[in-house]
Design goal:
Helix Hairpins, BirA Bifunctional Protein, domain 2, elongated, 20% strand, 2 domains, 427 residues, RNA-binding, ATP binding, alpha+beta
RNA sequence: GGAGAGUUGGCAGAGCGGUAAUGCAUCGGACUCGAAAUCCGACGAACCGGUUUUUCCGGCGGGCAGGUUCGACUCCUGUACUCUCCUCCA
């Protein structure tokens, strides 16, 4: 949620910034119009309410003195009716204003490449050289199915498209990857959390998924309840402190969690229909930080670098890009994506997204701390995948594949696989 | 799933239709070499509007949402959460 006072005071700045995210200037004007009308109505309503309170006190006093209070009671009746009318208008205006404001994305930070498409992302660095294959590298789904460690036929039967069964060494590899990630995050000072996998709509609103998420049918809501399956652990992790004041000495708070993420993938029909890249349910280890405002930009770099360190240890080639203004998620002021090299596709694919949402989520979710003057301020929140687990498995299968169809296991994962060095049919 | 109780300021805790006692904590002051104790005073969330870049005024506010009423923390309805008992259950 953007700061309305800020919009009121710097309308042109907001218009320029949000134009890069596809928001029309007229939308901002409309919002400011609602705000002006709202404040006008508040002024009128509050004047009447002040009168009402005075009249009420008069009645109370008259009653105490056993005097006649008919005049004051009539005044109360009249004023009460006027207030009712005015407040109905006010409520409508507030709702209109709020609905509009809730649809405005965060202001892009300086340095975010401006573009109305995903074209124009800036590559910050490229690490590791794609391996030179002496044979045609296979897609991970082919490798996985041949090895008997991924079964998409069974999942199609039992659940539907965009699900998977990991079998045997495949399931173990998935487990090795997320245990490795959790251990690394633990070492980096993140508190491990095991949160609920369903959250209420206030939480979905707090982290900025709702209302758009609902309108786009992007998720899985539980019938006859207020619950939604989490689309990312970011939701329960950030909302942990919703409506709270975080004790200042605790900042920065760093959380990490392994959870499944549930997404409808509405609107992505035909894309990535095979394999582990785009599923309705996938595991992800997530990192979240709550920081003081002045620390959040350093924190974004630190989260990104930590996510990178995982890929470095796994020895998988990747690059880091800064997303464009319109490619970023709704809540982000800046996002660095990590993309891993997928040999069979011959391109980099997203495996992590690290964002600074500044105070955008904190405003929605009311997450505050007290500054050195004891004043309540909004914290900044950050999130980053560390990392997507299924996509890591896909990347391992493709980057570590051998011509005979076996797959080597990255050295750092071998201890997590009871020393197994290679996945072959026999496993 | 059933029954009951509860939800008031940072905490504790009254009132139970006329606009939120009191205690603790906090802040300021007095006393003191200093501190404790004591005394005096202030302050009761967050939020919103006006004015104002300190101030002051007003609104809102007693889990939340409605209703009754000139007026509700106080009555009624719904709902969320917490606790206890029963039931069920990994």
């Amino acid at each position: 949620m953007l700061d309305m006072k800020m919009i009121r005071q710097n309308p042109d700045f907001i218009k320029d910034k949000l134009a890069t995210r596809g928001i029309k200037a007229e939308t901002i004007d409309e919002l400011i119009g609602y705000d002006e009308k709202r404040r006008e109505l508040i002024l009128k309503s509050e004047t009447l309410k002040a009168n009402k309170n005075k009249a009420s006190k008069k009645i109370a006093e008259a009653k105490r003195n056993k005097e006649d209070a008919t005049d004051a009671i009539n005044e109360m009746k009249q004023v009460g009716a006027d207030i009712k009318q005015l407040d109905a208008d006010l409520e409508k205006t507030e709702k209109d204003q709020h609905d509009l404001a809730a649809h405005l994305p965060n202001i892009p930070a300086d340095g975010v490449p401006e573009s109305l498409t995903e074209e124009g992302a800036v590559e910050l660095r490229k690490i590791g050289k794609p391996r030179n294959f002496k044979f045609e590298p296979k897609h991970h789904w082919d490798i996985g199915e041949k090895l008997g460690i991924l079964n998409f036929d069974a999942s199609a039967k039992v659940a539907g498209s965009r699900f998977v069964y990991y079998m045997g060494a495949g399931a173990k590899l998935e487990r090795a990857v997320y245990n490795f990630y959790l251990d690394q995050n633990d070492k980096a000072g993140y508190t491990e959390v095991l949160p609920p996998y369903m959250v209420n709509s206030a939480s979905m609103y707090g982290t900025g998924q709702f209302p758009k998420f609902l309108e786009n049918k992007a998720g899985f809501e539980i019938a006859d309840s207020d619950l939604t399956m989490i689309p990312t652990a970011e939701v329960p992790l950030v909302n942990y402190y919703r409506d709270d004041v975080i004790p200042t000495e605790k900042l920065p708070v760093k959380f990490t969690a392994l959870t499944p993420a549930f997404r409808s993938e509405a609107g992505s029909a035909g894309r990535d229909t095979r394999g582990l890249i785009r599923l309705h349910q996938f595991n992800k280890v997530e990192m979240v930080q709550f920081t003081k405002p002045e620390d959040s930009w350093d924190a974004l770099e630190s989260i990104t670098e930590h996510a990178e360190s995982l890929l470095k240890l796994l020895k998988i080639p990747y690059h880091v890009i800064t997303l464009t203004t319109s490619d970023m998620s709704f809540t982000a002021a800046m996002t660095h994506d990590l993309e891993v090299w997928m040999p069979a596709q011959g391109r980099y694919r997203e495996i992590s997204s690290c964002s600074n949402t500044t105070d955008f989520q904190a405003r929605r979710a009311h997450i505050q701390y007290r500054d050195e003057n004891g004043k309540l301020q909004y914290v900044h929140t950050l999130n980053g995948s560390g990392l997507a687990v299924g996509r890591t498995v896909a990347a391992i299968l493709e980057n570590y594949q051998n011509e005979d169809g076996t797959v080597d296991i990255p050295e750092v994962l071998q201890p997590y696989m009871h020393g197994m060095k290679k996945i072959s049919k026999e496993n």
